[in-house]
Amino acid sequence: GRRVLRRSTCSERELPKSGPVRGARQRRDIFNKYRFHKRDIDVLERMMSPLLPDNGFEPWIILKRTQIRPTTPPRFPQDSLKHILMAIRYMSTNSFESEVGDIFGVCQKTVSNVLFAVVRVLDHPDVVARFMRFYPDSEQWCAKRAAEFAQQCKFSNIIGAIDGCLIKVQQPCAYGWQYFCLKACSAVNMVAIVDARGRFLYIDCRRSEGARLFEDGCTAPGYRLIGDSGFRNSASIVTPFREAAARDDERNANFNDEHSHARVVVEQAFGALKRRFPILYNVARPEPPKLQMVVVACVILYKIGVILGAQNGQPLSGRMLPTVPHPPPDVEALHVLNK
């Protein structure tokens, strides 16, 4: 018989390609909305589910006169994944709680309860101790951190870069003067220490004098932190020379250049943190006491993302840079820089 050739349509030719393309687009949309890939969100759910409330949260309804009251229906079942997604969505967009509630089909009060339940889990002392490890009094730990900095700069005894960051908040009605800063706005001060790879080692946003704890020789002998001119040059923190002293002395100018090259990692870490969670970049709406918990939660999530490789969707590379030996203990930093 006669052979009949069937002409394929345009949709049939594109059908095999649409699957991977659609899947890649969905994965990209999930990452843009929640700052984590699906497999990373599953890891967060397994880690945080045991610490979330077992009975869920009461459903709420909003009356016509904008009055909120609990209803008689039973509590909806525990859904830890939905709670985690609601909290991450709020912190990664800095949108209103009512808008997040419209996305997930709940009211603003439920979003508020879920948000701070998840934040309290991330702010748990055991969780913070698991991901924020800072042992300045351990010589073995300091030697390992100093070796990482020695691979990137000419300082051989630096264990971390310390700096402060202001997070703008809406001025509270009752005690707004307590959070008014020199930038002519209300803000919460955050002091953080990062390692040579930009991973947060220490964070403090609850006490304004937290940075003074490192100015009294708290590190192991021979090791120091590196900070800008906002800190006092002490036995624990290395600060740059003043501009007048570096203008006429080439050695001091070289020291400041290398100092800036080593300290920029903490500023890059702040920028990456605020870019990942815009609630820290724009004017935050939660009250300052609650915002301090949100800041810690964002840092913990950022640290988990670094460990899981959520920035680029790939796990952290196992390739290690060559180890740079330490110079003799009696050699000063200025002598090393001028070689």
UniProtKB/TrEMBL annotation:
<feature type="region of interest" description="Disordered">
    <location>
        <begin position="1"/>
        <end position="23"/>
    </location>
</feature>
<dbReference type="InterPro" id="IPR027806">
    <property type="entry name" value="HARBI1_dom"/>
</dbReference>
<feature type="domain" description="DDE Tnp4">
    <location>
        <begin position="162"/>
        <end position="302"/>
    </location>
</feature>
<dbReference type="GO" id="GO:0016787">
    <property type="term" value="F:hydrolase activity"/>
</dbReference>
<protein>
    <submittedName>
        <fullName>Transposase, IS4 family</fullName>
    </submittedName>
</protein>
<dbReference type="Pfam" id="PF13359">
    <property type="entry name" value="DDE_Tnp_4"/>
</dbReference>
<dbReference type="GO" id="GO:0046872">
    <property type="term" value="F:metal ion binding"/>
</dbReference>
<keyword id="KW-0540">Nuclease</keyword>
<dbReference type="GO" id="GO:0004518">
    <property type="term" value="F:nuclease activity"/>
</dbReference>
<dbReference type="GO" id="GO:0005634">
    <property type="term" value="C:nucleus"/>
</dbReference>
<comment type="similarity">
    <text>Belongs to the HARBI1 family.</text>
</comment>
<keyword id="KW-0479">Metal-binding</keyword>
<dbReference type="InterPro" id="IPR045249">
    <property type="entry name" value="HARBI1-like"/>
</dbReference>
<keyword id="KW-0378">Hydrolase</keyword>
<keyword id="KW-0539">Nucleus</keyword>
